[in-house]
Each structure stands twice: as structure tokens, then as C-alpha cells.
């Protein structure tokens, strides 16, 4: 294992953890509140359940290194949606009371990185693929 592979692993695990926590907080805070917020910005409320589910399950999958590219595409789509529907009017740094889209932008960039990067040797998917090949 080299330092680039270790860095790739750390970034993937932290990205997965951040999305997992965001999904968990949507359910713990009352998913109906999130659905109401979605409705208030013109997104059908049922999408809150889909987004929270993707964040929760996708976060775990990313931490483990399973379906990294697919999960990362979904995360990138979620971040694009968040930026363009909720955060863009607030600006990059927000309005002093509400955060802007700076966090969303770095999460988008990290997600795109994993869409484009080769699979890490430090992933469960890679270990399973190797064991099937042998």
C-alpha cells in the first residue's frame, strides 16, 4: 500500500461517513420535517426519503468500498440538486445566518473524484473481486 492508496481510502471513508451522518440526521430529526422542507423549495416531499436512504446506505457502502462509482454518481446528483435548488441563492459562503454551498461543493468534487478514479485496493469490492479471480 502506498500513500496515494491510503489517501484515497481516507477520503472515501470520510466522504461516506459525512453522507451517512447526513442521512441518519434526516431520519432522526424526523424525515417528515425534511419532506416538508423539500416541498417548500419545490421538490416532491417523497424525494426526502430517497435522498436520506441514499445518503444512509450509500455512506455505509462508500466506507466499505462497495459500489463506489455508482454511489458516488448518486452523491454527486444529490449535491447538484442541493446546490441548485436550495443553496445557490445563498452564495458560496451563505448569508450570515445560513451556510452557503461551500460544503456541498467540496462533497460534489470528492464524489466526482470517486466516479473518475480507479478502484482502490483498500476496498471490500476489490477484495471480493480478487478472491473470485483466484
From TrEMBL:
Signal peptide as annotated in the record: none
Membrane topology of the entry: Multi-pass membrane protein
Annotated Gene Ontology cellular component terms: plasma membrane
Main location group: membrane
Subcellular location(s) of the protein: Cell membrane
Membrane-spanning ranges: 6-24, 36-54, 60-86, 98-116
Keywords: Cell membrane, Membrane, Transmembrane, Transmembrane helix
Family assignment from sequence similarity: Belongs to the DoxX family.
Name of the protein in its database record: DoxX family protein
Species annotation: Cytobacillus firmus DS1
Amino acid at each position: 500500500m502506498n500513500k496515494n492508496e491510503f489517501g484515497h481510502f481516507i477520503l472515501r471513508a470520510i466522504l461516506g461517513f459525512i453522507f451517512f451522518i447526513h442521512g441518519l440526521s434526516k431520519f432522526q430529526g424526523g424525515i417528515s420535517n425534511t419532506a416538508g422542507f423539500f416541498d417548500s423549495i419545490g421538490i416532491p416531499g417523497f424525494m426526502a426519503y430517497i435522498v436520506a436512504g441514499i445518503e444512509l446506505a450509500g455512506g455505509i457502502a462508500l466506507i466499505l468500498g462497495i459500489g463506489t462509482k455508482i454511489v458516488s454518481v448518486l452523491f454527486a446528483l444529490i449535491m447538484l440538486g442541493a446546490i441548485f435548488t436550495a443553496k445557490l441563492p445563498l452564495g458560496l459562503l451563505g448569508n450570515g445566518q445560513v451556510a452557503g454551498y461551500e460544503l456541498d461543493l467540496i462533497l460534489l468534487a470528492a464524489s466526482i473524484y470517486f466516479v473518475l478514479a480507479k478502484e482502490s485496493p483498500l476496498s471490500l469490492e476489490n477484495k471480493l473481486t480478487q478472491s473470485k479471480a483466484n
